[in-house]
């Protein structure tokens, strides 16, 4: 059972990393963040989106998932934050094929956010430093 918990935690981190990129690129409404975003922080905020990102049949993102995207959008206030978020995505996404990138790419629109790029595990992090 410990092995399953470890795998679930790793998959959660991968999915959360994908979502932080969505939120980070959506623009900044917070004043400034003290430090670059950390993947662990992102994973904690994005746990409610996990079933949707792993492609569970019939799942849709619900309120708390989209609210978490809004929080991350506020936290990703600087170019450094957005680069950190992208780096988190790239580090996690390549190792976890269970993340459905088609769903991740559509999540911003589903939650009422607008971003200027497509989410993928091969993103160029230099492209997310500016607001859309």
UniProtKB/TrEMBL annotation:
Role this protein plays:
Plant non-specific lipid-transfer proteins transfer phospholipids as well as galactolipids across membranes. May play a role in wax or cutin deposition in the cell walls of expanding epidermal cells and certain secretory tissues.
Domain spans labelled Bifunctional inhibitor/plant lipid transfer protein/seed storage helical: 39-125
Database matches in Pfam families: Tryp_alpha_amyl
InterPro entries in alphabetical order: Bifun_inhib/LTP/seed_sf, Bifunc_inhib/LTP/seed_store, Plant_nsLTP
Which interval of the chain is the signal sequence? Answer: 1-30
Which organism is this protein's natural source?
Setaria italica (Foxtail millet)
What is this protein called in UniProt?
Answer: Non-specific lipid-transfer protein
SUPFAM superfamilies recorded for this chain? Bifunctional inhibitor/lipid-transfer protein/seed storage 2S albumin
Q: Which family does it belong to?
A: Belongs to the plant LTP family.
Q: What PROSITE patterns does its record include?
A: PLANT_LTP
Recorded hits in CDD domains, A to Z, give: nsLTP1
Please indicate which superkingdom the organism of origin belongs to: Eukaryota
Which is one GO molecular function term here? Answer: lipid binding
Q: Name one GO biological process term.
A: lipid transport
Keyword annotations: Lipid-binding, Signal, Transport
Q: Which PANTHER family match?
A: NON-SPECIFIC LIPID-TRANSFER PROTEIN 2-RELATED
């Amino acid at each position: 059972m410990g092995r399953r918990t470890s795998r679930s935690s790793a998959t959660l981190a991968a999915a959360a990393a994908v979502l932080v990129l969505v939120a980070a690129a959506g623009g900044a409404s917070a004043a400034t963040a003290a430090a670059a975003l950390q993947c662990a922080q992102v994973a904690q905020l994005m746990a409610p989106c996990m079933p949707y990102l792993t492609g569970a049949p019939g799942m849709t993102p619900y309120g708390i998932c989209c609210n978490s995207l809004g929080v991350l959008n506020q936290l990703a206030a600087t170019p450094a934050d957005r680069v950190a978020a992208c780096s988190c995505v790239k580090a996690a996404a390549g190792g976890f094929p269970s993340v459905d990138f088609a769903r991740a790419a559509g999540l911003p629109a589903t939650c009422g956010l607008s971003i200027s790029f497509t989410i993928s595990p091969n993103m160029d992090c230099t492209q997310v430093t500016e607001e859309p």
